[in-house]
């Protein structure tokens, strides 16, 4: 279990710089290619654009050198690459959307949001010196999370777009508070579950080989279930609802190691969703548009039909194996090609090859995050990093699965790529948090703990460990050195 | 909690594998279907941007793509639009494709698998890729003759080469000009489309193969006669031909055309019954044979088959399980029996070809940029419809119909024509449809024809198949044989 947890003390920042150069080459190259394809010339602002992108990423790289020297070297380049490709696609769509009189400016705004996102990430890295600080705000985070979730329901503040009420309007900008609620709720789940895990993991009755929890411990999962159903019912957003429930069930499993929670969770959600499909026409429409997507009637339905989905599929089919090339396809024919449907847009112009490469990037991102969770020593950090990595992967699954008709389509955006300020800001913050945790995971453990936190912080779970042998490495203290013990051999670490 | 973390990372890997498979499914496995979906305007955009292959009839392009100075690149134009509209179909930015434009789309746009080497050549030599040319089997002179003979009447004409199954004539009226749907302004196309859809007689419908199918009327007596001959009845054997045939299980009676009498004795030979198209005789024959035998014979002639010629043909239909009175009506081509004009032409063609039914074909060949033949259609047998002796008996009977019977208007000096008329009741108010099907020359058949003139055409209630449809068939046969 605790074999490959800590790397040798190496900062890997130089590796990060090289990977960053590669990612920037992809992003800036894509931008230049779009310009050549759409306007027959390299975009005139290419210098400013590259300088901006390079400045932002190198700036964040320097912040990492300063504040988190041991952070994972792959996370930042992957994210910069994805963000760059997304920007190039949005810029390319602008060229199709806009006219000489009314140019479309999605790309400019997305670039501004990217800058803001990078600055936010830097701030997180600078201000938050130790992720365990967040644990103190477990219940504050819950309140903030729930507040953010209900914000769109507040009259005058919330706006309804295409039937879903998940936006709030501030000035000229609309924000999706749910994106930020994701972080707050991950903090809450991690803090809550790390305290309650033993209780929740306690054996209940065993039915058909499944260790069921005790009925009285079902409270939290029922609460989370009710909350996500409320999102589904009142905000009419299947995606957000699915995402939160997935996050909760995933983290619950991480904390308790009980498959029964996953089974119960999936069962509850499916039951809820099926009931909702019976009761609410907008949910039923989603299912119908998924199952009977190619029916002419469903395809042509003015509202809630499968027209958008199938047009996206047409686009991807048009791309085929190798894609049409930047600017050579027709992604602009799909409504919301720059946000919800940016994946079909990329699939069309970059082909199956390009799309698979992008998916691999996301997979690497999620897996590096999960590896960070494996490496970090405290239970809260493990849960938090694991939860956030999983939520990135799960969001990709829901989005890409939706547009490729693997699962019903929901209105979620692809992290880092899709147009949307809230999504960009929130996801850059998530990356900053993962970087912060990975710094602590990969930092060589000095003889005396570098973190002056009270050891009692983790005491409820440190004691013993329910598997008896301390197989897991949850707390720091005793079990942290357990990591080292296994790796280095018994006795060598003991002072 | 590292164990669940590792398991979770496996779950994440599985999720991404599912996504990759799903993406592969869409972009590779299903891509050809999606690209061919008529709702996929995207493919159309892409296609307008490359030279689409021409559709050729008799050595001349009837549909071709011309370069224009617009974002689309090329404009599809039809040199004899209305005449060939139902064969070529339309090619529209808004409404996709129909007809050959749809059925042979991948050949015309150059993406068909069979064109792989041609594409490879283009890639290596740097030649601008172009679609392949599709050559049709139509005979321009006969097509024009059918078009002129049908005039302003609603209906359809189909002619086939009896030996190969090649479709020589496909005319459906009213027609339309596919050029007006080929323009690039979607607003204009939408307006024209709406006009066509509101126009009298649904000009967009290809009545020859895919319209609302028609009751075949007396032309179906060929099928009933074939079933009887196959059952062992002789052409000169006497059969019942009463003035009135009481329909079983009801008080209604079946009469002959105009209430006339088929024979003073109440019986006549099978040959005479077909010559004068005696309803009561064939009604009784159908009842004696049973609905199953008649349906089996109809299916041997191609009823119920979904043909792709390569345009999709609506299957013709014989009722599933009619009761006795409906069996009587079905045997004379009324009740729920429904046919396409192509199916009626196939009846004559099979009889003319000594009982062997050839598969109808509209495409003769596909040719690449250098006119090299990429694919050539070979004659295919669909099966044997009737035995040789039955076919010969039917041929003799059909010759009699034109020489001394209801089809005299189809006579051509110097050529022996064999045929069968039909006058199909549709409803009490509307005039009947006039049918005629024929083949010629009777001693060495080459061409089979089917003509339908809806609701009697210019003659209205006075119309019979012999008076209205037979002269059209004669013009077509003359044009083919010349």
From TrEMBL, chain A:
Coiled coil: none annotated. GO terms for biological process: cell division; regulation of cell shape. The chain crosses the membrane at residues 17-34, 46-66, 73-91, 111-128, 140-159, 179-196, 217-234, 240-256, 261-280, 350-370, 382-404, 416-435. GO terms for molecular function: lipid-linked peptidoglycan transporter activity. GO terms for cellular component: cell division site; plasma membrane. Residues 468-479 have a biased composition (Basic and acidic residues). InterPro entries: FtsW/RodA. It is found in: Membrane. Residues 444-453 have a biased composition (Pro residues). Keywords: Cell cycle, Cell division, Cell shape, Membrane, Transmembrane, Transmembrane helix. Residues 443-495 are annotated as: Disordered. It comes from the Bacteria. It is a multi-pass membrane protein. The keyword Magnesium does not apply. This is Cell division protein. The lineage of its organism: Bacteria, Bacillati, Actinomycetota, Actinomycetes, Micrococcales.
Automatic annotation (TrEMBL), chain B:
Residues 155-477 form the Penicillin-binding protein transpeptidase domain. The keyword Cell cycle applies. GO terms for cellular component: plasma membrane. InterPro entries: Beta-lactam/transpept, Beta-lactam/transpept-like, PBP_dimer_sf, PBPA_dimer, PCN-bd_Tpept. Signal peptide: none annotated. GO terms for molecular function: penicillin binding; peptidoglycan L,D-transpeptidase activity. Keywords: Cell cycle, Cell division. The keyword Cell division applies. GO terms for biological process: cell division; cell wall organization. It comes from the Bacteria. Residues 52-134 form the Penicillin binding protein A dimerisation domain. Pfam families: PBP_dimer_2 (PF21922), Transpeptidase (PF00905). This is Cell division protein FtsI. The lineage of its organism: Bacteria, Bacillati, Actinomycetota, Actinomycetes, Micrococcales.
């Amino acid at each position: 279990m605790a074999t490959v947890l800590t790397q040798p003390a190496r900062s890997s920042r130089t590796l990060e710089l090289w990977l960053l150069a590669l990612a920037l080459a992809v992003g800036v190259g894509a931008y230049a290619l779009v310009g050549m394809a759409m306007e027959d010339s390299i975009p005139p602002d290419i210098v400013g654009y590259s300088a901006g992108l390079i400045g932002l990423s190198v700036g964040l790289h320097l912040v990492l050198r300063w504040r988190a020297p041991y952070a994972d070297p792959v996370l930042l380049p992957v994210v910069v690459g994805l963000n760059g490709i997304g920007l190039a696609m949005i810029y390319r769509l602008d060229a199709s959307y806009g006219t000489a009189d009314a140019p479309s400016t999605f790309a400019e705004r997305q670039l501004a949001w990217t800058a803001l996102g990078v600055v936010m990430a830097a701030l997180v890295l600078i201000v938050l010196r130790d992720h365990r600080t967040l644990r103190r705000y477990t219940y504050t985070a819950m309140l903030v999370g729930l507040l953010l979730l209900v914000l769109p329901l507040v009259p005058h503040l919330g706006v309804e777009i295409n039937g879903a009420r998940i936006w709030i309007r501030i000035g000229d900008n609309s924000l999706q508070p749910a994106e930020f609620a994701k972080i707050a709720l991950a903090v809450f789940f991690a803090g809550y579950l790390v305290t309650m895990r033993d209780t929740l993991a306690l054996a209940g009755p065993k039915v058909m080989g499944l260790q069921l929890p005790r009925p009285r411990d079902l409270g939290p999962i029922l609460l989370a279930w009710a909350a996500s159903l409320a999102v589904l019912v009142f905000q009419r957003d299947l995606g957000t609802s699915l995402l939160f429930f997935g996050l909760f069930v995933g983290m619950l499993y991480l904390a308790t190691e009980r498959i029964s929670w996953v089974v119960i969770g999936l069962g509850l959600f499916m039951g809820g969703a099926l009931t909702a499909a019976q009761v609410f026409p907008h949910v039923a429409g989603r299912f119908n548009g998924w199952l009977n997507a190619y029916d002419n009637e469903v395809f042509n339905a003015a509202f809630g039909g499968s027209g958008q989905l199938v047009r996206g599929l047409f686009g991807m089919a048009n791309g085929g194996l190798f894609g049409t090339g930047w600017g050579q396809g027709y992604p602009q024919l799909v409504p919301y090609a720059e946000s919800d449907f940016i994946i079909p847009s990329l699939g069309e112009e970059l082909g199956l090859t390009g799309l698979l490469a992008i998916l691999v990037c996301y997979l690497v991102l999620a897996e590096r995050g999960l590896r960070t969770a494996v490496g970090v020593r405290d239970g809260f950090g493990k849960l938090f990093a694991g939860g956030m990595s999983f939520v990135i992967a799960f969001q990709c699954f829901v989005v890409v699965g939706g547009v490729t008709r693997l699962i019903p389509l929901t209105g979620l955006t692809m992290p880092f790529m899709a147009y949307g300020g809230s999504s960009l800001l929130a996801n850059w913050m998530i990356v900053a948090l993962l970087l912060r945790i990975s710094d602590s995971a990969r930092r060589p453990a000095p003889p005396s703990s570098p973190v002056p936190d009270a050891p009692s912080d983790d005491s409820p779970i440190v004691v013993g460990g329910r598997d008896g042998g301390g197989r897991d490495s949850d707390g720091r203290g005793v079990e942290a050195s357990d990591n080292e013990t296994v790796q280095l051999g018994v006795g060598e670490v003991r002072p | 909690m590292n164990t669940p973390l590792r398991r979770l990372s496996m779950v994440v890997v599985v999720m991404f594998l599912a996504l990759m498979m799903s993406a592969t499914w869409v972009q590779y496995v299903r891509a050809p279907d999606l690209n061919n979906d008529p709702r996929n305007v995207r493919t159309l955009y892409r296609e307008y941007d490359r030279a689409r292959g021409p559709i050729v009839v008799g050595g001349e392009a009837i549909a071709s793509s011309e370069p224009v100075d617009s974002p689309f690149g090329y404009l599809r134009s039809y040199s004899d639009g209305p005449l060939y509209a139902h064969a070529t179909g339309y090619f529209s930015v808004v409404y996709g494709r129909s007809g050959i434009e749809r059925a042979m789309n991948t050949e015309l746009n150059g993406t068909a698998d069979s064109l792989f080497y041609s594409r490879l050549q283009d890639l290596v030599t740097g030649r601008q890729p172009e679609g392949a040319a599709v050559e049709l089997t139509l005979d321009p002179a006969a097509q024009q003759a059918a078009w002129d003979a049908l005039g302003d009447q609603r209906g359809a004409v189909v002619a086939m080469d009896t030996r190969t199954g090649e479709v020589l004539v496909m005319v459906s009226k009213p027609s339309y000009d596919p050029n007006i749907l080929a323009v690039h302004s979607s607003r204009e196309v939408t307006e024209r489309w709406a006009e066509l859809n509101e126009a009298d007689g649904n000009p967009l419908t290809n009545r020859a193969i895919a319209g609302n199918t028609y009751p075949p009327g007396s032309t179906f007596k060929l099928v009933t006669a074939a079933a009887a001959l196959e059952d062992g009845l002789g052409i000169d054997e006497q059969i019942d031909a009463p003035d009135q045939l009481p329909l079983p299980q009801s008080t209604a009676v079946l009469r002959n055309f105009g209430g006339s009498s088929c024979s003073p004795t109440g019986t006549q030979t099978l040959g005479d019954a077909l010559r004068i198209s005696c309803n009561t005789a064939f009604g009784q024959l159908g009842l004696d044979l049973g609905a199953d035998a008649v349906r089996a014979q109809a299916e041997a002639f191609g009823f119920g088959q979904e043909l792709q010629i390569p345009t999709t043909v609506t299957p013709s239909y014989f009722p599933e399980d009619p009761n006795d009175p409906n069996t009587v009506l079905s045997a004379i081509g009324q009740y729920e029996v429904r046919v396409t004009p192509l199916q009626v032409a196939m009846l004559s063609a099979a009889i003319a070809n000594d009982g062997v039914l050839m598969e109808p074909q509209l495409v003769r060949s596909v040719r690449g940029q250098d006119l090299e033949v990429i694919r050539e259609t070979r004659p295919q047998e669909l099966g044997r419809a009737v035995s040789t002796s039955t076919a010969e008996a039917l041929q003799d009977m059909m010759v009699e119909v034109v020489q001394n019977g209801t089809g005299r208007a189809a006579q051509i000096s110097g050529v022996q024509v064999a045929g069968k008329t039909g006058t199909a009741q549709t409803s009490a108010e509307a005039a009947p449809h006039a049918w005629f099907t024929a083949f010629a020359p009777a001693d060495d058949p080459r061409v089979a024809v089917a003509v339908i003139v809806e609701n009697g055409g210019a003659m209205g209630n006075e119309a019979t198949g012999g008076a209205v449809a037979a002269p059209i068939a004669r013009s077509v046969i003359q044009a083919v044989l010349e």
